[in-house]
């Protein structure tokens, strides 16, 4: 399962790079959690959660980014910004049902801090 998640993150990163974002960090970890992709779009740092769901049970990929998961992402992003300089940021989500760029749904500003 980890291999599928890693592949989904690689595909998502390439997809976002093709849309003008620049990769800063992949799988950023700290004591608060992990952020799949940290990218830059212009002057904005974009924290990206990649969700791969092959089944739509339990609401699919979007439903898996629970309020608890959002709080972990926010705390992890705050840690990153403290280490690398505070700047404008946003939280995006990449939702996938297959390992295929035609199956990507990119939600900008998926949630806010």
TrEMBL record:
Gene3D superfamilies in alphabetical order: 3.40.1350.10
SUPFAM superfamilies to which the protein is assigned, alphabetical: Restriction endonuclease-like
InterPro entries given in the database record: Restrct_endonuc-II-like (IPR011335), tRNA_endonuc-like_dom_sf (IPR011856), UPF0102_YraN-like (IPR003509)
Pfam family, any one: UPF0102
Entry-linked CDD domains: PoNe_Nuclease
Superkingdom of this protein's organism: Bacteria
Family: Belongs to the UPF0102 family.
Transmembrane segments: none
Gene Ontology terms, MF aspect: endonuclease activity; nucleic acid binding
Protein name: UPF0102 protein SAMN05192560_0285
Gene source species: Methylobacillus rhizosphaerae
Keywords associated with the record: Endonuclease, Hydrolase, Nuclease
């Amino acid at each position: 399962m980890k291999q599928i998640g890693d592949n989904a993150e690689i595909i998502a990163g390439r997809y976002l790079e093709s849309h003008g974002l620049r990769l800063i960090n992949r799988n950023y970890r700290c004591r608060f959690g992990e952020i799949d992709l940290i990218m830059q779009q212009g002057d904005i740092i974009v924290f990206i959660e990649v969700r791969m769901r092959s089944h739509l049970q339990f609401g699919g990929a979007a439903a898996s980014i629970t309020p608890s998961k959002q709080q972990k992402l926010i705390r992890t992003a705050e840690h990153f910004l403290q280490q690398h300089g505070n700047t404008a940021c946003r939280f995006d989500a990449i939702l996938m049902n297959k390992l295929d760029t035609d199956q990507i749904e990119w939600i900008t500003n998926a949630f806010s801090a």
